[in-house]
Amino acid sequence: MFRVALWGATGLAGGELLRLIAGHPNMELACAVSRGRAGQPLGGTHPHLRHAYPSCSFVSPEEAREGEADLAFLALPHGASAEEAGRCLARGQKVVDLSADFRLRDPEAHRRWYGAEVPAPELRGRGVYGLPELHREELRGADLVSGVGCNATAAILALLPLARAGVLEEARVECRVGSSEGGAGGDEGSHHPWRSRALRVVTPFAHRHLGEVCQELGLEEERLTLGVTAVELVRGVQCLAHATLSRPMVEGELWRLYRGAYGEEPFVDLCPARPSHQRIPDPRHVLGSNRVRVGFALAEGGRRILAASALDNLMKGAAGTALQGANLALGLPETRGLDMLPVFPA
Amino acid sequence: MFRVALWGATGLAGGELLRLIAGHPNMELACAVSRGRAGQPLGGTHPHLRHAYPSCSFVSPEEAREGEADLAFLALPHGASAEEAGRCLARGQKVVDLSADFRLRDPEAHRRWYGAEVPAPELRGRGVYGLPELHREELRGADLVSGVGCNATAAILALLPLARAGVLEEARVECRVGSSEGGAGGDEGSHHPWRSRALRVVTPFAHRHLGEVCQELGLEEERLTLGVTAVELVRGVQCLAHATLSRPMVEGELWRLYRGAYGEEPFVDLCPARPSHQRIPDPRHVLGSNRVRVGFALAEGGRRILAASALDNLMKGAAGTALQGANLALGLPETRGLDMLPVFPA
Amino acid sequence: MFRVALWGATGLAGGELLRLIAGHPNMELACAVSRGRAGQPLGGTHPHLRHAYPSCSFVSPEEAREGEADLAFLALPHGASAEEAGRCLARGQKVVDLSADFRLRDPEAHRRWYGAEVPAPELRGRGVYGLPELHREELRGADLVSGVGCNATAAILALLPLARAGVLEEARVECRVGSSEGGAGGDEGSHHPWRSRALRVVTPFAHRHLGEVCQELGLEEERLTLGVTAVELVRGVQCLAHATLSRPMVEGELWRLYRGAYGEEPFVDLCPARPSHQRIPDPRHVLGSNRVRVGFALAEGGRRILAASALDNLMKGAAGTALQGANLALGLPETRGLDMLPVFPA
Amino acid sequence: MFRVALWGATGLAGGELLRLIAGHPNMELACAVSRGRAGQPLGGTHPHLRHAYPSCSFVSPEEAREGEADLAFLALPHGASAEEAGRCLARGQKVVDLSADFRLRDPEAHRRWYGAEVPAPELRGRGVYGLPELHREELRGADLVSGVGCNATAAILALLPLARAGVLEEARVECRVGSSEGGAGGDEGSHHPWRSRALRVVTPFAHRHLGEVCQELGLEEERLTLGVTAVELVRGVQCLAHATLSRPMVEGELWRLYRGAYGEEPFVDLCPARPSHQRIPDPRHVLGSNRVRVGFALAEGGRRILAASALDNLMKGAAGTALQGANLALGLPETRGLDMLPVFPA
């Protein structure tokens, strides 16, 4: 049994990690950390988990730093994470970070997208970008696992087979996202009268996850745009990549690329070719699970493709992938504790 | 042409009044007041009205107090309204207040429900409760018109015919309300991930509008409860009053009571007896309009009745009724500027 | 490993049973029966389960009757179930029926609420009403387990402690229900433009589940009404029982009743007394799980109580409770395969 | 006062036309035609309009053909419209058709997109494509006005300034649409559990409105794709055109094009350049009105542009534009009866 500490336990990703830890056969909660709600019962903030943690309260950072744990999940704001990561590592804990602090290898890119110097530069070399579909072997036994951006994960997995094959000329990627992307805090835009049924184009071309996408796909930024629209969903990301191929292709060739990339992946499902309206995935079909669905449609002429993916941003886009990383870091089977099936319709 | 000043112009009721004033043939906007956004274009806050007020900006309270107006709508927070009302009246303006400051005649009731002393006690005698269905004659030419609570309006109009006839023994009233009831500001509960599809019982028995309901129906509080549930709506109130009659009645008698009460009312529509699933009104059928629908169903035995109403809380529950009051106060036809039809389905 | 057959496998309760069977450590799917879609892949109808049943197709009733199984779940329309139940029992299979065919012990009550003679009268004595919270001991090893109505389950569990204690004078019960209650088929009312954000009072006083509620609580019908409102939800029932106690009571006494009834129940959670806005449960907090939450609020005077419950109608209101019944019938631990945690916010 | 007949009066576009006719100062309803509901009160089908048409019932086609009218609105299914149009014209009525029967000038294009021969070929030369922003002068006094596709209208108005200037190289256009696009009838996909919160890509590249878009913009089909995603909305279309310019451009030049195209248009509003999150329009800001909002954002490098529009598909996408056309055909001011302001938030 591994003891895991959870930092940032009152947030949405924090709540999702609590759900996962409660159901994990090889993990137990060492502590759930919250500066603002230390001493308060966990069930007050996460009413759906009250019965799973009947007598558990949040603890302060100071208390948490006194306690023991094998691994720490950091669901802290960008910037605050790196500092705590150093402390945890120094105490001999493995760290799975969900923030953006360790995602970008290039300090200049971090500066540009996050408007700040890279935090904890001494740790950067140790962090592994936490997407097992790309970095599985590096993640095994790793000490420091970086989180992934939910939109980045969706975009990367939609385009990876094309990028790897060197046939992706350019793509205009757009993600439709639910309100849980914004976290538990809320801002003016998340006030229900403004957010309900919104189709708000938050950014038309250059969402900050674009940096991750380019890094992981090995593409120059000139080839990609990444737009984000807030839609009427709480959970879920749907990514539509309007891509151009560098040469005309036929369906069979594309199926070989996608099957080759994902045939062995435990959490990636390819959408069927038929019926045609199921080719492009809908995030409702993965709700509450760690699965990601990937599909594509090819236009006449063989050069224009719509490559798409759908995932639950709190699961495969955050807590679920973090748990995959933690399993790998701890030497557990990668899928352990992640076999819940999607809840649909919901 | 009457010149009207609007105080609290950035809020939701304020926005709705701007929509109404823009379409009113006998009113023009003197000023739209906002302390926080003075100098900013009106269309930034109310994008749906940009074209209707192409070159209009908010003004500060100080500027507004220098300007002229025939009538002031006060869509200000409870407490702040009364003070401004006094100033407006002193400048010879008529006042239509949307806050709760002048609703309750009994200072003790105000204290109890709003946790504060009655503001501007010297003005209380002059205010008329602004529900034309109850106080039409007093409202004609009035100087100070009080706003009405949206839930109170719904409950009063559902039960009025029974209360007037003296056959209402008791009622457990519950309102299902949209998120726009909470105003433009937002609180933790209105954060979209918490509010979306919520069925949150905000108060089980004693919403603060109960004071108005008892006052206007002339009933002791022991006879009524008023519960409120926040549901997945932006606009709309549906009121279901689970009432007990003091004696068994038959349908025909009840129809006479309801038709007698509302047959001449320009904005009250009775639901048809058939088809039976249309007896209880749905607020979607009055969206964007000043109409209120009232219906009832009688259980076997003739003593248990479900009396119900539905309205748009920003219209008949706030801005629409306020404009009815303003029309009456200014000597205009009561329905002027209020003939828009509901938008359905939406 | 028990082999289970699923009849009515294309419906919503059928889909939910497929999700549960896939995750159950002691069950495997013998066959998924559909007359209309025999031969078609299961993943076409239930896209969220494609990866869990990668090579499974629906079979015809005729094929299913040739196959072997230890237990049959019948998610068939009312009326069709009883006939198939007889055949399954004759082949030595245990039967868990989700229809209403075996719910009402009194043939007259069945006739009245379902407008038809009781089907398979020879089997009626053998069926056990499948709510473990009421009939746990009878369900152990039972051959024929009846389903439960989702609204009935919600109403029964909200009121059971009061009814058992003999303090329930009367109650006006109302359920707010999601669109999945209507099944996969759809009717005019479920067309999205009509159903979205609806507050449609489907029945004000006498939903057909009232028969079950009275039977199981041992109350005469004169004491209860059961209204149903369709609200903007896909899954979920919230039941609010506006009840009157036969004598004034205090909170502590009520807590003893509710704790006494549910303290040992594995799937019933009592809402906390504080914070007060969490006293009345919201179905969003049990989404996708088999849990039911029960709470209450007592009005001043001690006679008027709001007793409430919330559940996921496809789980605790249908498939989840059916699996509890199947576990008990097969001699398995009651909670086996039902430990998934709620997905929130979603 | 012009007398107008409405064919197809039970549908969603029909209901919207009834709302418009009721509020139009120069029109009165001659008859509301329905084969299936002849004799039934109009308020049963359109409960939100009951008070506006208190004693009006639907009439059969046969009755309607006996009556008199100055103009007929045809909100009939594709194919049925053309036949009735001929009869109406023969009786001397002007016709405003909302179907697709007269939209495409090229019979081959009609065949391809609608899978049928062009109906009423003898009338084709007489029909004018009913988008006043493109064909205002031809519409004045016209006898036969064709309807417009809602998605086509959105796409055309987003791209028109670029196409006219000859700078549009290609565009991948996608529309996000509400459930009212499917009409009042409903199909499996519109069943609420499937449709609620859906992100269903109905067609990735070639929605049938593409024919209209190419015809009206004068572009070859190779340059455009038109995808449609069903989203959680009842009313509304948001069109995002991911376009490539044939040469690098700067913002100022684009503003001149868009202002030049729409500066005088009574129903087209340009989105402001600032704040930047208001550049791309949201259909919630035009709900219930005849307005269309158009905006754009230019990516670095000056070649990639996101050109966008938003409208209410039942208004500017159907009934509203039809009324504009009717006004022009009858010699009335084009905006008559169309000055209602958007309802927001709703």
How would you portray this structure in words?
- Chain A is an alpha/beta fold and 346 residues long.
- Chain A folds into two domains: 2-148 and 315-330, NAD(P)-binding Rossmann-like Domain (Rossmann fold); 150-311, Dihydrodipicolinate Reductase, domain 2 (2-Layer Sandwich), CATH 3.30.360.
- Helices cover 30% and strands 22% of the residues of chain A.
- Chain A is built from eleven helices and 13 strands.
- Chain A has helices spanning 12-22, 42-45, 61-66, 80-90, 107-114, 132-139, 150-164, 192-195, 210-217, 251-262, 315-330; strands at residues 2-7, 27-33, 71-74, 94-97, 127-129, 144-146, 168-177, 200-203, 224-230, 237-245, 268-270, 292-298, 304-311.
- In chain A, the strands form two sheets. A seven-stranded mixed sheet of chain A has the order 8-9-7-10-13-12-11. Chain A has a six-stranded parallel sheet with strand order 2-1-3-4-6-5, with helices on both faces.
- In chain A, strand 1, helix 1 and strand 2 (27-33) form a beta-alpha-beta unit.
- In chain A, helix 1 crosses helix 11 and helix 7 (150-164) packs parallel to helix 9 (210-217).
- Chain A is globular and about 65 Å long.
- Chains in contact: A-B, A-C, A-D, B-C, B-D, C-D.
- Chain B binds chain C through residues 172, 174, 176, 193-194, 196-202, 204-206, 222, 225, 227, 229, 231-233, 236, 238, 240, 242, 277, 279-280, 282-284, 297, 299-301, 304, 306, 308, 310, 345, and chain C through 172, 174, 176, 193-194, 196-202, 204-206, 222, 225, 227, 229, 231-233, 236, 238, 240, 242, 277, 279-280, 282-284, 297, 299-301, 304, 306, 308, 310, 345.
